[in-house]
Specification:
This protein has 109 residues and is an alpha+beta fold. It has one domain. The protein contains three helices and two strands; from the N terminus they run H-H-E-E-H.
Length: 109
């Protein structure tokens, strides 16, 4: 292998002070930008209320376990703090939402 064919590895250039972020700063920014997976349900319930976005059924503290959080884009890891990717659906509407694709595929055949 000739010297021209070898890829030269360069050392990373040091960044100017103020451009370097610590690991703690990066982690904090990531946490502020999205809600943790364990907390997004409670956050969605606070933002959108105890009501199904599809059928309009209202829930109280005793029946709130029947209310689920649906990710509009289908990505359960996309949890923006403003709740823009969530909608609260009752278990029946949530099941219906996820079965629509299956039914459409079946009917196309």
């Amino acid at each position: 292998m000739g010297s021209r064919q070898r890829t030269q590895l360069r050392k990373p250039q040091p960044k100017k002070p103020g451009e370097v972020k610590s690991a703690a700063d990066i982690i904090r920014e990531l946490k502020e930008g999205s809600v943790s997976a364990s907390n997004y349900r409670e956050q969605s319930l606070k933002i959108h209320g105890l009501i199904c976005a599809k059928c309009g059924r209202e829930f109280d503290t005793k029946s709130r376990h029947l209310l689920t959080v649906h990710h509009k884009d289908g990505n359960h890891r996309n949890n923006p703090a403003d709740g823009s990717n969530w909608e609260n659906l009752c278990i029946y509407c949530h099941d219906d939402e996820h079965s629509r694709g299956l039914l459409a595929d079946y009917l196309r055949k």
